[in-house]
Request: fold
Amino acid sequence: MKKYIISLDQGTTSSRAIVFDKNQKIIGLAQHELPQIYPEEGWVEHDPMEIYATQYGVMAEALTKNNISIDEIAAIGITNQRETTILWDKATGKPIYNAIVWQCRRTAEICEQLKKDGWENYIKKATGLLIDAYFSATKVKWILDKVEGARERAKRGEILFGTVDTWLMWKLSQGKIHATDYSNASRTMMFNINTLKWDKKILEALDIPEQMLPEVHPSSYVYGNADILNNAVPIAAVAGDQQASLFGQGCFEKGQAKNTYGTGCFLMMNTGDKPCRSKNSLLTSIAASTQENCVQYVLEGSIFSGGSVVQWLKDELHFFETSAESEKYACQVSDSGGVYVVPAFTGMGAPYWDMYARGCIMGITRGTKNAHIIRAALESIAFQTHDLVECMQKDTKIQLTALNVDGGASGNNFLMQFQSDILQIPVQRPEMKEITSLGIAQLAGLAIGMFKNLEEIRAVQRNITVLNPAMPEETRKKLLHGWEKAVSRSRDWVEH
Ligand code: ADP
Reply:
């Protein structure tokens, strides 16, 4: 009987596979690390064959380890690291270059040129994005420029482009499916989020042949069959990881938001059926969708250094041995003793956008203990989230009534309570840790009729921890004032 859904979660540092049953419960899980390739300072690549091999491997492992036969799998859902770019030969199935990972800065110059040529406004309007090396478009151009004959071959339809979802689908279907979903397409800087079509003007500007681009469909959609050991299994959902997580958090309505506390933090709000244009450098993208030619939009902001400030205290300053211990230390003191940590390790993102800012620890006195610094470092994650939430509220004119949270550092109760105190709204943390995989499984279940509608998905009882604001307003104001002051001291530090 076909009773399970398997989620493939292809992330930047690992490939994971999780099996869910009809009650949206986890039945099996397997994970494998994905090696990172750093050919030059600021460049990041993955081997596309390794992406596929690790992903296939964990899928097989999640099944065999739990005695699940492939016959029992009703559908596959794919969620993935977004923007990462792969070009391959349609005939041989071999990549023509390594995957250029979203973090890779190698196309910064192409971006500068686009700005000089006056593309900023157009690209922002058409794609919802700011011109940046982060997105796929300039990575595609870079490979087409670099690999001899690639552009000509792409024009003849011999070379295909895909983000990681597209690549996995193409491999799993033995080359039968060349497609992506709206949410992934909206992060390529080639997709027009207003018309829901590839943007011909941008393609022309970058000399990218449209023939190489995948078809675009809703996230919840039967794309075709994966061929797994001669078994045909429908691939029934595709979505970018942050959008899958927004869906998994149940943020189906305009005004609902989630923040994922990982190495960095990703704040995303569902803004309904019209794109919201940010005046604060936030990005407009497309949410996970369930219908053809009909989407909801999101506003997204990211924090470069989130959980990584905790990692830094652990690995570089040796303040503790596991990230979780940070909570114990933070609770040893009643406040941060006037200390502020600004983790501007690589500059500050929205709303500051200062690439020349660098980290600082302010307000140290002779009495400062490491517990104060640890507490201040955790608080910095909440302060940065607060600043982003403020931007989002201004842009959308929607006041958040609660924040849904997930990701590694959301397990820190001190941090989550402080977050609620600083935002003055409840913070809601589901017990289920695999929200991204859950989201894609739900989308796949909807596509094949395992779940009838959103109500049925919502009806499943979930354990959620709610942390309510408890801090006096005066204390909150004082803390935010201190944070603002500390940020101002960190700015414009690097000589330029
Ligand atoms: P990613 O998906 O970005 O690798 P995870 O969601 O696995 O991230 O979260 C890992 C990050 O969260 C690390 O930077 C780690 O230091 C931090 N982290 C994990 N657990 C805790 C905790 N209990 N308290 C504070 N930070 C934590």
The chain has 16 helices and 23 strands. The two ends are 64 Å apart (CA to CA). The first strand starts at residue 4 and ends at 10. The mean pLDDT is 94.
